[in-house]
Design goal:
hydrolase, alpha/beta, 8 strands, 10 helices, hydrolase activity, acting on ester bonds, metal ion binding, TatD-like, TIM Barrel, TatD family deoxyribonuclease
């Protein structure tokens, strides 16, 4: 059976009336990892997961935004601490690569926040879902190594060859979005990265181009990603489905 898991989606950013259709339309969809961006986002993902058992919430603070006050951060960490048993992972957390291209930012407070999440993830015994691309990924690898973190998932990863080698050696996982169907650089990355450490995601509701132009991003797009991965890896489509499903199930300790 062609079973899929969307390893990274922002269900809280979809209209509530569309949740049921997104979750139930594709019978091959076994689970969705719904990541959070703020405290309100965490609380909304909690609500969605209580409505749909296949939705596994991750709690965190998306780095591509201005930082909250120290009081707001304290409130966020206190809430996650109280609700950590039900979350599947800490995420989405990382560094503000794209924001720093637009604004002059001090990276230090973002690093401090990320390190706090890393430390707490160890305390909570949860894996990390990371937003860390290009040169930011090197910095994040430094922090992960400093704290001896092995369960790290770099979503929609893009970076230099030396970073890719470092991540492979450390056993970090990456996930690819539907842009693998039409972007040669992502195809090259997926070809190079071990199949044992690959997952698939949508990052929905983020929109895509190519064959997905002007379409609402939904988990069923993953099927085309799996077919492309099978082609790139030289394995059967069935094998690709099995590998990607088992990788995600094992990484997140899912009993789907």
């Amino acid at each position: 059976m062609k079973q899929i898991i969307d390893s990274h989606i922002h269900l809280d950013q979809y209209e509530p009336k569309s949740w049921k259709d997104i979750i139930e339309k594709d019978p091959s969809l076994q689970a969705l990892i719904s990541v959070s961006s703020t405290l309100h986002s965490c609380q909304l993902n909690q609500k969605i997961s209580q409505l749909y058992s296949c939705v596994k919430p991750a709690y965190g603070f998306h780095p591509e935004q201005m930082l909250p006050s120290s009081n707001e951060l304290a409130e966020l960490f206190a809430w996650i601490d109280q609700n950590n048993e039900e979350m599947i992972a800490v995420g989405e957390v990382g560094l503000p690569y794209y924001l720093s291209q637009t604004y002059t930012l001090s990276l230090e407070p973002y690093l401090e926040l990320l390190e706090a999440f890393i430390i707490h993830s160890k305390k909570w015994g949860k894996p990390l879902i990371l937003h860390a691309v290009y040169e930011d990924a090197e910095i994040v690898c430094d922090l992960l190594e400093k704290h001896s973190v092995s369960k790290a998932h770099f979503h929609w990863f893009k970076g230099a060859k030396k970073t890719v080698e470092r991540m492979k050696n450390n056993g970090y996982y990456i996930s690819v979005t539907p842009d693998i169907v039409y972007k040669p650089k992502i195809q090259a990355l997926a070809t190079e990265y071990p199949l044992d450490y690959l997952m698939v995601e949508t990052d929905g509701p983020w929109p895509f181009e190519g064959p997905f132009q002007n379409q609402t991003t939904v988990p069923s797009m993953i099927h085309q990603s799996v077919q492309e991965i099978a082609r790139l890896k030289g394995v059967s489509v069935t094998e690709a489905y099995d590998f990607l499903y088992q990788n995600t199930s094992c990484f997140y300790s899912l009993s789907t």
